[in-house]
Amino acid sequence: MLLRILPCVCLLLGACDRGIEVAPAPQAILADSPRSNTELAIYRDDQQSVTDRIADLIGRMTTEEKVAQITAVWADKHRMEDADYAFDPGKAAAVIPHGIGHLTRPSELSGSGEPGRSGDQEIAYVNAIQKWLVDSTRLGIPALVHEESLHGLAARDATSWGQPISVAATFNRDLTRRLYATAARQAASRGAHVVLTPVVDVARDPRWGRVEETLGEDPYLAAQIGLQAVLGFQGDDDTWNEGEVFATLKHMAGHGEPEGGNNIGPAHISERTLREVFLYPFRYIVTNGKVRNIMASYNEVNGIPSHANGWMLNDVLRGEWGYRGAVVSDYFAVKELHSRHAVAATLKEAAVRAITSGVDIELPDREAFPFLVEAVNQGELSEEVLNTAVGRILQQKFDRGLFENPFIEPGTALSNTPADDALVREAGTEAMILLKNDSVLPLADGLTIAVVGPNADKVLLGGYSDQPQHFITLRQGLEAYTAANGGSVVYSEGTRLTEPGSWYKDTVIAVRAEDDRARIQQALEDVADADVIILAVGGNELTSREAWAEGHLGDRPSLDLMGTQNELIDALAELGKPMIGLVFGGRPLNISNLIDKSDAVFQCFYLGQETGHSVVDVLFGRVNPSGKLPISIPRSAGHIPAYYNYKPTARRGYLFENVNALYPFGYGLSYTDFEIGIPQLAADQIQVDGTTTVSVKITNTGDRPGKEVVQLYIRDEYSTVTRPVKELKGFEKIYLAPGETKTVTFELGPEQLEYLNQNMEYAVEPGTFQIMIGNSSRTEDLRQVTLTVMGQAK
């Protein structure tokens, strides 16, 4: 049988050998009946190869039907709904007459953070739309359904754990995978096929309000934790299994160091830094994780917006790395080529530029890409480019089995369970980073505990959250613990960060200082008889968030604690009581005053729905703290950048100021002591293409069991291109009982030693390398040996 395969689709799917002639696709079949001439079509036969099915289907499509497959419907969903937000098939033909590629976030009702659909309601809604698409459109193509799942499925009654910055703080690969597999099962059970997660932007400016969404400042850590998130969503292979969804790596690229810390600000980054830092997690995960979607970033890199950057999306991503998945737009970003970046005079020009640069589908709504019909008809866009994008979207629909079964069994939606609670609670404990402990922790039972501060009794989920089944505040966790184990809790608000508001809604209302000072005085009275003060400060969902518009801001020029928090710290310190500081929020802050005046301090970021229980587990020693900083804490905004992997000439010093971070990447204390031995190389000399290992013994010399993160850093001592003073190249989190010793071994070879040389080629250069192992990036926390690399690669 002569295969009806379009040349561009054939090449896309890797099915054609060069030189083989391929028959042209037939003209699309036009008929009144939705099923005309398609019942025996190749694309409907699941015994045919996906390559052949895609080619056959594309060959039958009109230009309008093709463009429909690379667009999505979000706000326009409401034009297909009745007054109760139920799908109305009678209205659908006017909205999506040619079908649709993606259905955007059906978990929502009206959006804007309002309560959404229950799991069963979402199944009914998705099934109704899929039935209409299958039965009432000419070719019967089902839709892909996508949802947000930054830190758990963003849907009503789903499980919500800590923000990604907290997941990164665990340095725990297995835990990460278990978390994101939980979200995958819940999302798939409600009808989703794609999630717009994980974020692997490397965050190098803590003024940026989206730091909480990232995995921190280090490209290796982002790659390792990001890979586990992808594997949790998709599994280990390239096939779809029940309970899995297709992941989306985002945002490519350079998003995490915007000019001035302003969201979507220009990224002024050399190609070397772009490749070695910001593109590294994408390259690593594409190579090792078979991720199915990548989202382009809002920002420009060196003058080229990412949604119009063919070099990045076509030449590098697809050409150099061999990526074969889809590239999806960020929300409204194609339109912004016209309205914000001003590199396209019209929406049609924006659409043409985006699709030719490698963007395959416009999310979340149909704004610019519908103009591609006109562009093709007028010869402004090659139909082969359009067909290639359509093929990438159809690939996922066929791989997911949507043509055979687009429906979800009613009554099977998964919501949060006690097992999920336990997992989130565990993750919260491992994400808490102990920065200081002057022998006040762990706490004893039976104390009168004052819990004070703007974050002491607040729901703290961070961005891209919905409504989890419950949230345990710090106050609630302490009250539950003391009720069962003795002692009592006194609560006082102390100060406020902002007046009540929402991450989703624009308005942020500052608190009047005089009102806060009255609260401080009240707090001093409330805590007079307490044995210990637990002070919960930091930021909230309004003071650090995605600034998606000029009227919805979330970046700050200062890292200082907002409002009168430092006044509260000063006043409570005067009481002379033991004080434990807990810093919540989405990004590092200037906490020097809290460090100076507290007996113990934790960096918590956001810990998830079990926050109160997780904190109690650690404060009372039921769990030994083991979190490590995934991002350095600067001394002030003037100390930015503060990342640890700087170049040798970068940190000469400041007049009358310490140039180093207040607390560096990888730092975090424990209630026990770990002794790290001298690293041992299996061979201290290797060839440039050779490999060896380095091993180190770690002993728990304290009297408590606990986990420690053993970290491997490498420095190329002399190189033809300057290298950072140290770079993370390995880590392992291990559990040790008191007195127990374990050996940790790391591989050393091209993957750990190579870098971009003068010719912008990855290579290992001969010379000496410092191999450093310890429990933080601080030089005093590391022990080192020297590896010599000789000769030339064979």
Automatic annotation (TrEMBL):
It comes from the Bacteria. GO terms for molecular function: hydrolase activity, acting on glycosyl bonds. It is an enzyme of class 3 (hydrolase). InterPro entries: Cellulose_deg_GH3, Fn3-like, GH, Glyco_hydro_3_C, Glyco_hydro_3_C_sf, Glyco_hydro_3_N, Glyco_hydro_3_N_sf, Ig-like_fold. Its EC number is 3.2.1.-. Keywords: Glycosidase, Hydrolase. Pfam families: Fn3-like (PF14310), Glyco_hydro_3 (PF00933), Glyco_hydro_3_C (PF01915). Residues 708-777 form the Fibronectin type III-like domain. Signal peptide: none annotated. Belongs to the glycosyl hydrolase 3 family. This is Beta-xylosidase. It comes from Neolewinella maritima.
